[in-house]
Amino acid sequence: MKKGTKLIFAICLIAALAFTGCGGGLSMRPAYASENPVRVGFVVNVMNHPYIMALDEFARKQAAEMGVAITVVDPQFDAQQQVDMINQFIAQGYDAIMVVPVDITSNLPAYRAAKDAGIPIVEVGANSDGDTFELVSVAVIADQEQQGKSAAEALVKVLPGGGNIIVLQGSLGSSGQIGRDKGFDDYLADKPEYVILEKQTTDWMRDKAMTIMEDMLTKYDNIDAVYGHDDIIVAGAFEAIRAAGRDGILSVAIGASKDAIALIEAGDLTATVDQPPDYQGAKGLEIAVRLVRGETMDQIHDTPAKIITKDDLDTFTPVW
Fold this sequence. Notes:
Elements: H1 3-18, E1 39-43, H2 50-66, E2 69-73, H3 79-91, E3 96-99, H4 108-116, E4 121-124, H5 130-134, E5 138-142, H6 144-158, E6 163-169, H7 175-188, E7 194-201, H8 206-219, E8 225-228, H9 231-244, E9 250-255, H10 258-266, E10 269-274, H11 277-292, E11 300-303, E12 307-308
Parallel strand pairs: 1-2, 1-3, 3-4, 4-5, 5-11, 6-7, 6-8, 8-9, 9-10
Antiparallel strand pairs: 10-12
Helix pairs in contact: 2-11, 3-4, 6-7, 8-9
């Protein structure tokens, strides 16, 4: 091989390491090549809940499509452990951190540390509040208060004369619990014919909801409806209701899960309010990567509070 030919060959070989070919139509490698991917840490609130499992699934799928490395950790509803996990991702030099906050204020010191390190924080599925939220780069969430109002609106339609209500809450201090309580209470504030007999937290857990509902059924013989902060809670409550033979109790919930659709088909659940984990998980991951690339994004990406009833079952397909 002549010197000139060798030189041309060497130039093409070097170029091939950075591009897909040497010659017509060169194209750059993917922005997130496998040998040096963007790294995203994802700190959930608790993994053993179907909604969080779905968030995780859709975030991972989006990461795989984008060639992004994602690490998911579970503080098991421990606010301090969540702070520690965020700080660990910061110390390890992750490029972005996604968070489902345990409560609305606890992550303030970790978020400050992330900002100081230049690491964007993306909240998904739930959000923090006040000074803590000011440090969030982007939140991909639903309007929790509007969800609560929509659930109350749906309940009033099927109990137009009023009734006695049991409220089964999510984890106290979470944005879901606070917003879904407030929206529901605000909608019923000028309707004294609707009486909330009692509220109790289930920590979003189905088994705990069933146990609490068993106690409520023993305590009250005049329950007309149950409002659950999510579908899984109501599904647990109805295990107790069926076991007790207490027919005629209606319910509303939030989530639009497969459990909710089954309850609607059975006539137990009047309505559920959609909160799409596919959008929030995938969009949250995509936005985290775009922030790493230096793009400017709106702080809040909201999903509408769409009410799902039996009239929507032919056109609505649950994703979790």
